[in-house]
Amino acid sequence: AASDVYKRQRGEFIMKQRKSKQVRLFSGMLIGIVMIAVLARIVYLNHCYPSPKVITYTENDTIKLGNYEIKQTGWEWGDGSLLKEKCPDYVYHQMDDGSESPFDSVRVGLITLSVTKVKDDTTSLDLTSLAFEMGTNGNQYDMELFFKLNPTLEALEIKLNAGEEESFVIPYTMNEQQVSKKDWNRVDKMKLYMVLQYYPQKIRLCCN
User: Cα separation of 159 and 164, whole Å?
Assistant: First the structure.
């Protein structure tokens, strides 16, 4: 009887081992199939949507977006005092005690752009997608500040007729909490890029 019990237990153990191996084999095959499917999807997406070519312009270049030509005509860079000089009633950041951030903890870039329509069509220049990149830090501009600096503009859409021109200031603001201490120590020497378009080509302007 003891021998029969042993044989039965051994048989059950062998069956469990076989089932365990089958489960592991099936799981491995399933993981492999999923990984192949994911890899195929990545390859497909990269083929359909390749990484955009980066085109960098400088202040001396004329940038063409559709039937609009854009040129940088002005550049100012400074700390919070520059912002206070241009917009005395604008508060960039308020501390917990109600005071404003110290001037030396803020940096401000003011980029003047001149836009000309070279050919008539129904398109407009949309400013909502403009963004800035500096080192590893990227952010959009402050739209409230934009309208304070450009009181004659009523929308973030520039629509012109052929031959017409419009100039406006795009503000870039940042503070020391947005970047590493290493980057903040060299912030006044770093390159600031304004990204005008992300796809199918990444078009950016080196502002300084």
Answer: 9
